[in-house]
Amino acid sequence: MLAADSPLLLAQQRLTELIENESDTTTGFAGVYGSAPVTVAQVLADLRTFASRVLALAHDDDLARWGASELVHRCNSYRQAPLTTYRGRREAHTKGSWVAPTDAAATGIALAAALDGLSGTDPQAVVDRIAWLTDRLEAKGRGIAHCDIEKWSSEVSPDLVAIVLGAVHRSQGRRAVRLHYRTTTGRPQRPARGLQLPRARAQKTPVSLWDTWTLQMMPRTSCGNLRWSTVQQALAVSTLQVGAWINLPQALNLLGNRLPVKTLSRTLETLHTHEAGLEILRAVTLLADVLDHEGSPINYERRRKVFGERADFIAPEHWAEIQEKLGHLHRAPSHVHHANRWIYQRLTGNPVSLMPVSPTRNPDDKPKKYPQFTFDLHPFEADELTRHCQKFLSDESIAEPLSWEPNFPAEMPNSVKLPGISLESIHHSKVHNAILAGALSASAAAKVLNTSAAHVRCIVDRHPLSRREVLEERNEIWRQLYLAGRSISDIGRLAGGGHPTIARELRRMGVEIRPRAPKQQYQHLAQEVVHRYTQLEESLQDIADATGMSRATVRNILEREGVSRRRCGRRPLQT
Q1: How far is CA 10 from CA 4, 14, 17, 56, 109, in A?
Q2: Per-residue pLDDT tens for 52-101?
Q3: CA dihedral 124, 128, 130, 133 (to 10 degrees)
């Protein structure tokens, strides 16, 4: 006899309703199958598969949730009874759970557990209900790889497989597989075989992911020494992995990226193991959905093929004309190569590290100074370079916008709490005001605005600002202080600035740099140093030890006094 509220009776009642329903479909399991109707036969097949796992893996404490102690005892007696397989071997039922049970208690408890687990109103609720199953799999020491679960039964639906894998991946913390199966979203799916899906997505994705998305997903606090450019490339690769079986080298190859796999893997590991790693994975999955459903007005794959192997986009004389119109005659000759990098980055969506080396590159060109070039770019220069880019597109008959970024889905702000910064969280006028007030670098402006340097650079990239007036005012203050007799070190302490920068700007303005005055700290020991070196023939180290100064200071004093240095090495013995 069973109580009126027994889970077994409730399960029997629901199964009867399913079987005797006039319709062949049902929508009563929305957590597993979604809002679309699913056939009753498929529901029963999934219940049977899940129930067989219950009989094979459940502990007594698990079974007690669906049956009294007497029922659990009967179920365990049945599970331990010998089972004759088609090969003639006799094993316990837990070894062959695919066999339909012949005991009513075992059948009832197993189906009650299956109905309870798969009856959640949403996928996350279902994952929570069946999480105990993955714990039992791990406790048994059995493999719970996704391929094993997919082979549970030929009748099992992809929806049930995806839901179970969602619970498995959550308990194991597996990150790449979460992208493959989309288990961070409300509707997990089996990955698509082949490269057709990621190849189509690669056409819509730049090698360096869009700034707005990267800013939101890159943690604000430093973790694992993340670099902005590397994070952009790593997130673009992750986007190709969503819903498809594709590894990192294959994704890099589709994008035409040469980033070392080790660097890529280490960056992704740092992102995914962050405390908001699950939210980052969910945002990447949502981005892939946006690209798949809404598409992109830019074919980045074509852009990479057409412009990816070029290094010279603007002639030096054309760049010189732009500088003459602005009066920037002090621009370094290497800046034309930075202008080429700017155009290459806009046309291809690639990082500048992928740009071929220009045959006309001069020794003064330092690629590491490219970020400073973009930060200093004048609005007129940006407009001229943009027109140059549009002309390249027109010459190649490419009717596309120069740049584009996908919008964030409407549900993202409510469901995803990313660790980064929204691009629009700071108005560009605040950044301009901070720079005009004296924060002349991205890091300085970021410190004033309590944000990241990457955020400031992205804002200035979209809203260029001429710092020429600010720099000229600063340089004029340096010039007046220097002409008034101040040393470069004093100017740095009073008005700010490094010694090399101040000296360089003063020379550019035609100011003759005075020779440095000798330091007077050890001037009273100069004669003693000369005497010890020339008369007593002591070594530099002996003199330094005796006078309390360093070897470098001893050497400088000898050079200042015009004393010729002895040859190094052991001196011959005097007889």
Answers
A1: 9, 6, 11, 23, 11
A2: 888 888 888 888 888 888 888 888 888 877 665 545 555 555 544 556 77
A3: 130
Share of the chain above pLDDT 70, in %: 87
Which residue in the block uniquely carries the two structure tokens 């090698």?
207
Read off the pLDDT of residues 42-51 as tens digits, 9 standing for 90 and up.
999 888 888 8
Based on its alpha-carbon atoms, the radius of gyration of the chain, rounded to whole angstroms, reads 36
Q: What is the distance between the alpha carbons of residues 541 and 547, in angstroms, rounded to a whole number? A: 10
Q: What are phi and psi of 38, to 5 degrees?
A: -130, 145
**Residue whose pair of structure tokens reads 């889905």 in the numeric block:** 409
pLDDT tens-digit profile of 94-120? 544 556 778 888 889 889 998 988 887
Q: Are 143 and 97 in contact (CB under 8 A)?
A: no
Confidence of residue 187 (pLDDT cuts 50, 70, 90): low
What does the buried/exposed string (b/e) look like for 278-294 if buried means 16 or more CB atoms within 10 Å of the residue's CB? bbbbbbbbbbbebbeee
379-403 CB burial, b ≥16 within 10 A, e <16: eebbebbeebbeebbeeeebeeeeb
Do the Cβ atoms of 190 and 244 come closer than 8 Å? no
Compute CA distances 136 → 46, 71, 109, 162, 212, whole Å: 19, 21, 17, 18, 42
Amino acid sitting at position 519: K
Long-range contacts of 437-440 (CB under 8 A, 24+ apart): 438/470, 438/474, 438/496, 440/467, 440/470, 440/471, 440/474
Query: Kind of pairing, strands 25-26 and 38-39?
Result: antiparallel
The 10s digit of each residue's pLDDT in 1-32 is 888 888 889 999 999 988 988 888 888 888 88
**Secondary structure (3-state) at 109:** helix
pLDDT in tens, 547-575: 878 888 888 888 888 888 887 666 555 55
Task: Pick the closest to residue 286 from 208, 179, 404, 161 (CA basis).
Answer: 179
In 515-550, which residue ranges form alpha helices assigned H by DSSP? 526-534, 540-547
Residues contacting 389, CB < 8 A, separation 6+: 343, 346, 347, 402
Which pTM was predicted?
Answer: 0.70
